[in-house]
Amino acid sequence: MAIIESSIEINANKDRVWDIVSDIDNEPKFWKGTKETRNISREGNTIIREVTIAFRDQKCDQEVILFPKEKIEVKFTKGIIDGTKIITLTPREEKIKVEVRWDIKLTGMMGMFTGMIKNHIKNGTEQALQNIKNEAERQ
Question: How many angstroms separate the CA atoms of 139 and 134, rounded?
Fold first, then answer.
């Protein structure tokens, strides 16, 4: 498994940041590795969806659980990626720290390339966090 961690501090209130990160339908706007999302079902704070990722336009199924204003847990349930992505919001004085932790591997024969894509995912995560910060700090 590849563990990828990244974080950023955002000069905005928790509600503003949560509104951006929890709008999972708009994920492709911030996360360039996600090309498209399609929700299959929603029950309470749990969403089952299919995403098309930039890596060879592969489709992955996900279970997304929203813990309002605290964290988002994404579990890859089918497709080329196996594992989780967790986004956590932590208040820090007048800022919000947003942390992302991936614990993933590529499935099947692609598993041998997990290490190679680690830097690509880390760079994409850092770019996504910067995009989220820019949006949240925009007045």
Answer: 10
Domain that holds residue 111: 2-137
Exposure class string for 76-96: b at 16+ Cβ within 10 A, else e: beebbbbbbbbbbbeeeeebb
**CATH code of the domain containing 109:** 3.30.530.20
Number of domains observed in the structure of the chain: 1
Say how far apart CA 69 and CA 19 lie, in whole Å: 9
Say if CB 85 and CB 97 are below 8 A apart.
Answer: no
Q: How far apart are CA 96 and CA 25, in angstroms?
A: 22
Task: Report pLDDT digits (tens) over 67-89.
Answer: 999 999 999 999 999 999 999 99
